[in-house]
Input
Amino acid sequence: MISDKVSASAQIGIGIMLIILGVLVTPIGLIGAIAGGFTYVGILMMFLLLGGALMLLGGIQYLRAGLKLSKDEKKLRQELARTHSPSHSHSHTHSHSHSHSPTPTPTLPPTPTPTPTPPLPPIIARWTVDEATWQLFCLNEKKYRTGDNIWYFIAMVLLGTPLLMFTRGVSPGFSFIFTTLFASVVVGLRYRLSMSNLRSRKNKTPEVIISKGFVSLNGKQFELYSKVRNVRSVVFQPHQQPPILEFTIEWKTSKGVTFDELRLPVPPGLEDTARQVEATFKEF
Output
């Protein structure tokens, strides 16, 4: 899996490319399907028409998602910077200090720096995630998972097309269309499953719980160790926005060892806690 995230501009570029391909392929498939009728060539052209229409639809969706992603990312970064900037908290405190009243009034205590919830054995660390951090994290995870699935889709099409040609003896065009449709379904389901832990839970603040045996993100639990599962690495990435604590979990399959990344958001003020978690797992 790739570690780089797909930017909004990349999604816009992919959308434009798919739209161009769809515009080129769809008329060819339509004309061929009409001319060929229900012959072998006509049916093949119908699949080509369907593939072109799917590329056109996918391109439009990518383009819309990229434009929305660019707008939302800019808005969330501004909100996160405004919420956690020192100047914001200073101006808030300063406005209270200049209020005068003939009778003493109780002053509000300063907003404390977020601190992790006291851990309970065998829990190593536990914290809640504020709304601005969570929204930016979800935005970046969608970009990350989108990029991951794009490469997965490309690999399936590039490997599946010649495999179907040589093992089943079908034409290159039919192999490409069938593999593309199949890869689209697989990647779509894979993406939905990977994003399931980011769904909002009504009246519940997103929470991260880390123990030696499992990690819980937003109420969904992920096993770390078992007979077939193991933690390959735990890395704190402070330069990302928001900072990320990344677990790389590997497990055995019939074809060998595979792995996936579990990324946890770290709210402002809890960077030292994340570093302690990183150090703890390095000692295991």
Q: What stands out?
A: The first strand starts at residue 123 and ends at 128.
